[in-house]
Amino acid sequence: MLVLPSDHYVEDEKAFIDTLKQAVEVVNKKRGLITIGITPTVPETGYGYIQIGEKLVNLEDTYRVERFVEKPNIEVAKDFLIAGNYLWNSGMFVWRADGLFI
Length: 102
Known about the structure:
Blueprint: E1 2-3, H1 13-30, E2 33-38, E3 49-55, E4 63-69, H2 74-83, E5 86-95
């Protein structure tokens, strides 16, 4: 299952599709929930952030989520950009339907 908000601009369609394919591969191997982050280019206060944690072994650009931060102020957003281990939260998620529990 994929959640893909309709208000995103996708500049590099091939890279986007490759990212989605990789997310599907990861969720089929590891289960769980995948969230897709975007490398920030400016300290943006209108977006939530994802702090990336440890890298998952043998999975390119795939990390555990350390924490989510909702729309920081400008000083904190600048610190996130400098730290280099924060991504913008795209609001895009991938998981297996059989992974949902009722």
